[in-house]
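From: lab user (bench 3)
To: helpdesk
Subject: output format question, protein + nicotinamide-adenine-dinucleotide

Hello, I'm new to running complex predictions and I'm not sure whether the block I got back is the full result or only part of it. Here's what I submitted:
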Amino acid sequence: MTNRTVLVTGGARGIGKGIARAFVDAGDNVMIADLADPEGWRYALASESELKATAAELGVEATPVDVTDASSCAGAVEATIGAFGGLDVLVNNAGVVDSGPLAEFSEERWDRIFAVNVKGIFLMTRAAVDALRGSEDAAVVNTASIAGKRGAPRMAAYCGSKFAVVGITQSFALELAPDGIRVNALCPGMVGTAMWHDHLMANRAESDFDARMREMIPLGRAQTVDDMGQAAVFLATAPNVSGIALNVAGAYEMH
Ligand code: NAD
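Helpdesk reply: Thanks, we reran it on our side. This is the complete output you should expect:
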């Protein structure tokens, strides 16, 4: 039981919710932050009611945040400190996906992916760094992806954004090491969240996703949000682990 204070972005659902639950189970105070006023993307993002429902289900606090907006990021950090008195662990998990042929991929879609997946990590970590420096046991976990280890066709924006997350993680790890703040990236494999079911494999049954992953993934199944929660708690807790990008992908990616 660590009794730290943890802020998880994109915590209303999917992997972020699994991560929030794992920190609750570890005995921590958790604030989930998510986009409670979605303008719409290629698939629906989390709503205010989803954020509130998840907070009630997990017994955690919740605050709206748009990680692409600096003042909103500062507000989420302030809300966390207001609720729990400090901040020990920041989990930068909010993200969006899109895919499509290069020739048809719009600048707007490219820019939004980089705004959320890349700039969002910079803005949130910058907003949190003073509070993290005040912690005796501080860590940052950035949700990257195995798409940050290997490119994929029709996925240049998403893969590029996740490669960037790995580079940012390494740079922050070195810059913040003198403050004792560990910074690591989590690289999920394939988790059956909205990204898959509402976009990448939309119009296909969930059982199709499971069957494809059983075939593709050496350990014989898709990853789960609980796999990600367990790994995130490890990355935030291991005292001498910093600057790594940990694959949780059933041996599908080893790089
Ligand atoms: P998801 O869509 O269920 O979760 C993403 C969350 O981010 C949503 O709740 C969404 O509302 C939130 N979000 C989006 N834009 C935001 C913004 N501007 N500000 C605040 N919150 C915002 O999908 P997920 O699979 O749970 O994704 C979580 C993370 O895991 C993402 O970074 C994603 O890229 C990464 N990832 C997912 C997979 C997978 O297979 N599902 C694999 C590798 C990496």
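A quick orientation on your result: The mean pLDDT is 96. Let us know if anything else is unclear.
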